[in-house]
């Protein structure tokens, strides 16, 4: 589409309706024909509006205002009570806080005093430890001196041990000499042949008694001979002790005693056998 000066609409007709637009011009006769004739109606009496609902509304509003005022008063009194309670609670809380602050301050003071006392006690302990360290140093010096004394004592003990070893060697030499003397004593003929012969004869008599029928008298005689031999054996070492060793004679005495004991046991057995015969 073009857009130029011919598109402007300057002359636009009016759209109003006027008398010229009527196809049939109205005349007085036409208006009479078209006029409608009616009866005149008497005007109705209008009643004045009543004021009852208005007064009711005013009363309701008044009572509502009174209720609102009473409720507001109750709320205000309740708020005052709450305010008093909050003030009392705040006062109580402030008192408790003051008491707690006093307790805390007292605890702080007590802790400070305890810390001071602990620090003083620590200082005393440190001083005691220092004195102990000094004493230990002195003791160590004394221990060093004791160690030197111990070294000297060890040297003395080693010397004494050497002396004891020399004494032991001397004792061993003496023991060897005693052993040689004992061997010589053993090699020397002792006066024991008679005792051995007597023991042999006693054994032979015991064997003969076993073959006899009634050897009670012979057994009594053997017992007397055994007693005599035992007394001789007990007395002989003391008489023959001249230049010999007592240990050798004690050994000989023990051997003879054992032989006598065996003979006595054999005699008892014979007596029991004889007594058991019918």
| Largest pleated sheet | none
Unreliably modeled segments: 238-243
Structural class: mainly alpha
Number of helices: 5
Q: What is the beta-strand fraction?
A: under 5%
Summary of the model, kept short:
With 278 residues, this protein is mainly α. 78% of the residues lie in helices and 0% in strands.
What does the model show?
The protein is mainly alpha-helical and 278 residues long. It has a domain at 190-276. Helix content is 78%, strand content 0%. The protein contains five helices and no strands. α3 (193-211) runs antiparallel to α4. The longest helix is centred in the middle third of the chain and has 136 residues, at 52-187. The chain is elongated, with a radius of gyration of 81 Å. The N and C termini lie far apart (185 Å). Residues 238-243 have low confidence and may be disordered.
């Amino acid at each position: 589409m073009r857009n130029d000066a011919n598109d402007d609409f300057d002359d636009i007709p009016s759209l109003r309706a006027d008398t010229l637009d009527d196809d049939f011009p109205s005349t007085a006769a036409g208006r009479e024909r078209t006029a409608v004739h009616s009866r005149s109606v008497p005007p109705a009496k209008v009643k004045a509006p009543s004021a009852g609902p208005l007064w009711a509304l005013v009363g309701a509003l008044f009572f509502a205002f009174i209720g609102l005022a009473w409720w507001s008063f109750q709320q205000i009194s309740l708020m005052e009570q709450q305010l008093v309670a909050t003030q009392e609670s705040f006062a109580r809380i402030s008192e408790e806080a003051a008491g707690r602050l006093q307790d805390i301050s007292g605890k702080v003071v007590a802790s400070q005093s305890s810390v001071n006392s602990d620090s003083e006690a620590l200082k005393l302990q440190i001083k005691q430890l220092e004195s102990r360290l000094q004493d230990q140093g002195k003791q160590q010096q004394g221990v060093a001196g004791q160690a030197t004394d111990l070294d000297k004592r060890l040297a003395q003990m080693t010397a004494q041990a050497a002396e004891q070893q020399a004494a032991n060697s001397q004792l061993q030499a003496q023991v060897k000499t005693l052993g040689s003397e004992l061997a010589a004593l053993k090699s020397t003929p002792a006066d024991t042949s008679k005792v051995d012969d007597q023991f042999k004869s006693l054994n032979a008599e015991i064997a003969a008694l076993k073959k006899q029928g009634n050897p009670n008298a012979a057994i009594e005689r053997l017992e007397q001979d055994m007693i005599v031999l035992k007394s001789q054996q007990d007395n002989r070492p003391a008489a023959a002790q001249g230049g010999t060793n007592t240990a050798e004679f004690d050994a000989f005495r023990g051997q003879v005693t054992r032989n006598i004991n065996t003979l006595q046991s054999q005699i008892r057995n014979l007596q029991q056998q004889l007594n058991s015969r019918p």
